[in-house]
Amino acid sequence: MKFPPFFPACLAFVAISASAQPVVEVSNVRDPELKAYATMAKGLDAFDASRAHAPRGTLRFLLRPATREDSLEGLELKIVGEAVTLPVRLDADGGFTLPRDTAALDDKAALVLNKKKNSFRWRPEVRSPGVPADARRLGDLRVQCAVQWAIEQEDLAPQARGALSANGGPCRAMTMHMGFDAPAPLRAAWLQDGARREAIPVSRHYRRVFNPPLADRSWSDDTLVRFEYAR
């Protein structure tokens, strides 16, 4: 059974990085390997369905250079079909909001960058207002995971998708642990929910990656993940 890079770690119950996914396979020419706009739009549906965990949260997608040679400078993103071409505004940090567009769905459009394939990686980001810059809100991460899973499960073989879904998926199963990127390399990370405080794992190999207990409902959505950065 063959899986895309996102899923072997899930099946082995190993922490994985939510930012390690290739960007919506992009190039100037339409390519059959591109993620369709319809596939990315399933992330929007998952966001709407999970809003109870982040009622004031907003969803963006972030583009990140795959190598040091790649840069955000001059980067352009469009939704391109046979009849539809929609420019998508990129923020200075490579973030964008994916619009809903019925015509793009009907036209089987895809997301296209003006850079060579595999130059950029993407991840969703859900943020609620009022969260400190050096922290993440657990409810936001729960929704962010749901968005990622809704998009990435499209690449799985049906039997693999069924096996993961039967256990609640990587966002709801106690035996699976999603990884998320911190702003900088970490010395430690912990949960803070009122007076309750508990350390959470930080990846030994990717020091920016922390692993919150998304499936543990004893931690409220307003729990904050706090960081201690490595010096």
What is the strand content? 25-35%
Sheet with most strands: 4 strands, antiparallel
- Judged by helices, strands and strand pairing, the structural class is alpha+beta
Q: How many structural domains? A: 1
Number of strands: 14
Termini gap: 42 Å
DSSP summary: helix tally: 5
- Integer average pLDDT: 84
Low-confidence stretches: 1-33
Radius of gyration: 18 Å
Signal peptide: 1-20
Keywords: Signal
Output the keywords.
231 residues; alpha+beta; four-stranded antiparallel β-sheet; 5 helices; 20% helix; 27% strand; signal
Summary, kept brief:
With 231 residues, this protein is α+β, with helices and mostly antiparallel strands. It has helices at residues 8-11, 37-49, 102-106, 138-152, 158-166; strands at residues 16-17, 21-22, 58-65, 77-80, 85-88, 95-96, 110-113, 120-127, 135-137, 178-181, 186-193, 196-200, 209-210, 224-229. The protein has five helices and 14 strands.
What does the model show?
The N and C termini lie far apart (42 Å). With 231 residues, the protein is an alpha+beta fold. Helices cover 20% and strands 27% of the residues. Keywords: Signal.
Secondary structure topology:
Layout: H1 8-11, E1 16-17, E2 21-22, H2 37-49, E3 58-65, E4 77-80, E5 85-88, E6 95-96, H3 102-106, E7 110-113, E8 120-127, E9 135-137, H4 138-152, H5 158-166, E10 178-181, E11 186-193, E12 196-200, E13 209-210, E14 224-229
Parallel strand pairs: 1-10
Antiparallel strand pairs: 2-8, 3-6, 3-8, 4-5, 4-7, 9-14, 10-13, 11-12, 11-14
Helix pairs in contact: 2-4
